[in-house]
């Protein structure tokens, strides 16, 4: 399988932990992190429906996948989500 934009996003902006609790990235956070990653990488985000189809294909379940944010996209997403932090 070719390395897609979604694969690159998951490799660069997320890390998998053994903790599959509700503290893992939820639906809104995961897509928001993806859009931040796209912005920083100067690429156009794919439609949300396409994003979720790709995540299902990769067996990523929001809130239960053990994914956590990391890297520059995480910082961008957090600062964009909570402007009072700046």
Describe the protein's architecture and organization.
With 86 residues, this protein is mostly helical. The chain has one domain (5-81). It has four helices and two strands. The protein has helices spanning 5-13, 27-40, 48-57, 71-81, and strands at residues 14-16, 67-69. A two-stranded antiparallel ribbon has the order 1-2. Helix 2 crosses helix 4 (71-81). It is globular and about 35 Å long. The model has no long low-confidence stretch (mean pLDDT 89).
Low-confidence stretches: none
Number of domains as seen in the coordinates: 1
Q: Please provide the ordered H/E string of secondary-structure elements.
A: HEHHEH
Please bin the fraction of helical residues: 40-55%
The coarse silhouette is globular
Helices, by number, come to: 4
Largest sheet features = 2 strands, antiparallel
Mean pLDDT: 89
Structural Rg: 12 Å
Strand content: 5-15%
* SS class: mainly alpha
Number of strands: 2
Amino-to-carboxy terminus distance: 41 Å
| Strand arrangement across the biggest beta sheet | 1-2
Can you summarize this structure?
The protein is mainly α. The chain has one domain (5-81). The protein contains four helices and two strands, in the order H-E-H-H-E-H.
Keywords:
single chain, 86 residues, two-stranded antiparallel ribbon
